[in-house]
Design goal:
- There is one protein chain.
- By secondary structure, the protein is α/β, with parallel strands linked by helices.
- It has one domain: Spore Coat Polysaccharide Biosynthesis Protein SpsA, Chain A, CATH 3.90.550.
- Helix content is 33%, strand content 26%.
- The strands form three sheets. The chain has a seven-stranded mixed sheet with strand order 5-4-1-6-10-7-11, sandwiched between helices. A two-stranded antiparallel ribbon has the order 2-3. Strands 8-9 form a two-stranded antiparallel ribbon.
- Strand 8 and strand 9 form a beta hairpin.
- The longest helix is centred in the middle third of the chain and has 14 residues.
- It is globular, with a radius of gyration of 17 Å.
- The chain binds cytidine-5'-triphosphate and ligand LQXTBERG.
- Cytidine-5'-triphosphate (CTP) binds next to strand 1 and helix 4.
- This is 2-C-methyl-D-erythritol 4-phosphate cytidylyltransferase.
């Protein structure tokens, strides 16, 4: 069995969530902090050898006081992230143990990831060195101009919405990041490999694995998680 290190990206500013109290990844959903749901999904796996939570320096004191004990109980290592998502991923990558060949990067804002999806994207990464979860576009896509007028309907038959985890052979991911001219601009890790011409496999995921972006997303996530435990 191959070993995987999992980097849980939780160092964002949560600006679209717009909560005065707590960033989205630390907000309780179904009775525990959002990041804990994904952490549990990975911590229980025999093929996960290391779990790294990347948080923002500005959240360090709060986390230490309120949530560090939960992380310790799960064996989660905490590191500080950077200004952009890719910077946080690189901080997490630097903490991955040298003996671990595969790395999965998952948004801590995606608490509903399914075990079966993780199984499939892990297997795909072992077979191809690089694989991501994604869902096919299910709506009609429009391109609009600056005035908000529709310019075209974009053919969607080959379009996917990237999700996470995104899983890579560690040497391939490190090489792509090292080769990329400006990785901080990347909004996901697959695009780092794409820029260097490395093929990335898509694994179809469940639409349940949404990324919490705004407060409205909490309703769906709360219902989804509660329906799994009821
Ligand atoms: N510098 C950053 C930016 C984002 N993330 C993480 O990457 C995931 C996806 O990012 P996003 O949903 O955009 O989170 P935020 O950047 O916090 O959201 P916003 O853009 O609304 O500020 C989140 O779990 C977020 O915490 C991170 O670890 N480090
Ligand atoms: C990584 C990601 O969740 C894949 O869809 C997405 O790119 C994160 O983007 P965000 O702007 O940081 O939410």
């Amino acid at each position: 069995m191959n070993a995987f290190a999992v980097i849980l990206a939780a160092a964002g500013k949560s600006s679209r969530f717009a909560s005065p109290d707590q960033k989205k990844v630390f907000t309780n959903v179904d009775s525990q902090p959002m990041w804990m749901h994904a952490a549990h999904a990975f911590a229980k796996r025999a093929d996960v050898a290391q779990l790294i939570l990347v948080i923002a320096a500005e959240d360090q004191d709060m986390f230490q006081q309120q949530q560090a004990a939960m992380a310790a109980r799960l064996g989660v290592q905490v590191v500080l992230g950077g200004a952009q998502r890719a910077d946080s991923v690189l901080k997490g990558l630097a903490a991955v143990r040298a003996d671990i060949p595969f790395v999965a990067i998952h948004d801590a804002a995606r608490p509903c990831v399914l075990d079966s999806s993780i199984d499939r994207v892990f297997a795909a990464a072992e077979a191809s060195d690089a694989a991501i979860l994604a869902i096919p576009c299910s709506s009609t896509l429009k391109r609009a101009d600056a005035r908000g007028c529709i310019v075209e309907t974009v053919p969607r038959d080959q379009l996917w919405l990237a999700q996470t985890p995104q899983v890579f052979r560690r040497t391939v991911l490190e090489g792509a990041y090292a080769e990329h001219s400006n990785p901080s601009l990347a909004t996901d890790d697959a695009s780092i490999l794409e820029a260097t011409g490395y093929p990335v496999t898509i694994v179809e995921d469940s639409p349940q694995n949404i990324k919490v972006t705004t407060q409205a997303d909490l309703l769906f996530v709360e219902f989804t998680l509660q329906s799994r435990t009821s």
